[in-house]
């Protein structure tokens, strides 16, 4: 049944692009997904004399390599497929300068325009401390979370619970923070984890085991699947965001950090990939880490030195002034005129 489903979806995509969609001068396709999207879009553009434009958010073969390994024949075929089909695109957008460089140097593409992701307008900062507290209390009550007693810092991480995000890094860091907090009377961390994915049940069972072993005495973990509006509100109420995105290609960026900046939320994140500095300015709007120990030290530092967290907050608020409409109009809008 699976092959038939793929064929049916391929035909549905082709019919939508080649027949049901009104003729246009350009067709803009996001990559990934690469297979069969790029080939179907390429054929539809040939049929309708339309220019194919590719919006590169990552490389499909690098994501496939997470599951199969970089030397697997299917991964190598996928890479050649992306290279061959994308040759027909006269315009290529990328989410980073590093990705644009790879397209130019390794793929031989010339017309490559870095087009950074920027937050949509529904992500907005909450600038009043009192409004942040009352807003979070109201959201917690609506979601059925128990009240927290004593000093609390709200940490938010959005995850897809997949292999390209090692959630154990955050759990180990929180456990390490809890040990130190017990001896130094530090604030309790309320860690709110949003998202769905294949590894969620595994990590929920691990969290339950750590709680029963009293490894998270000064940490409270809440998981939630929120509406877009509630998620945007949560980011504006929180004290710190955490990104565990490791980048399969090394040259893509986590959209979740863009959303956090849109809400004026400073970020700490896994920084061991090339494109990270294009989004997060170290010590200005966030900080990077390369291990659970480094993340633990960042949490201890930022939740005990309020002036340092306030400095990052100021940088995140400046970052939230950059919006998608401005980025599009400046770089892409003139191409499609």
TrEMBL record:
Its EC number is 2.4.1.142. It comes from the Eukaryota. It is an enzyme of class 2 (transferase). The keyword Signal applies. InterPro entries: ALG1-like. The keyword Signal applies. This is Chitobiosyldiphosphodolichol beta-mannosyltransferase. It comes from Botryosphaeria dothidea.
């Amino acid at each position: 049944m699976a092959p038939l489903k793929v064929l049916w979806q391929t035909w549905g995509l082709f019919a939508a692009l080649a027949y049901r969609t009104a003729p246009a001068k350009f067709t803009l396709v996001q990559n990934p997904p690469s297979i069969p999207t790029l080939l179907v879009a390429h054929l539809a553009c040939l049929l309708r004399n339309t220019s194919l434009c590719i919006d590169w958010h990552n490389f499909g073969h690098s994501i496939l390599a997470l599951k199969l390994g970089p030397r697997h024949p299917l991964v190598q075929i996928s890479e050649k497929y992306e290279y061959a089909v994308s040759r027909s695109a006269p315009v290529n957008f990328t989410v980073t300068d590093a990705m644009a460089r790879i397209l130019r140097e390794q793929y031989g593409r010339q017309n490559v325009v870095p087009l950074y992701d920027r937050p949509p307008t529904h992500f907005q900062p909450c600038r009043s401390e009192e409004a942040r507290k009352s807003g979070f209390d109201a959201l917690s009550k609506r979601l059925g979370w128990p009240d927290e007693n004593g000093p609390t810092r709200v940490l938010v991480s959005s995850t897809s619970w997949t292999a390209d995000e090692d959630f154990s890094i955050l759990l180990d860091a929180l456990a390490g923070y809890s040990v130190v907090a017990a001896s130094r009377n530090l604030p309790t961390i309320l860690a709110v984890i949003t998202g769905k994915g294949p590894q969620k049940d595994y990590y929920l069972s691990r969290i339950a085991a750590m709680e029963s072993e009293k490894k998270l005495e000064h940490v409270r973990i809440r998981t939630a699947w929120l509406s877009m509006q509630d998620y945007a509100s949560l980011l504006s109420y929180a004290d710190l965001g955490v990104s565990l995105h490791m980048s399969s290609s090394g040259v893509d960026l986590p959209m979740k950090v863009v959303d956090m900046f849109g809400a004026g939320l400073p970020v700490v994140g896994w920084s061991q990939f090339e494109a990270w500095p294009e989004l997060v300015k170290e010590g200005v709007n966030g900080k990077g880490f390369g291990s659970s120990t480094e993340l633990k030290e960042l949490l201890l530092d930022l939740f005990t030195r309020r002036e340092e967290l306030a400095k990052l907050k100021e940088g995140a608020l400046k970052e939230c002034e950059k919006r998608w409409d401005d980025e599009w109009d400046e770089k892409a809008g003139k191409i499609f005129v």
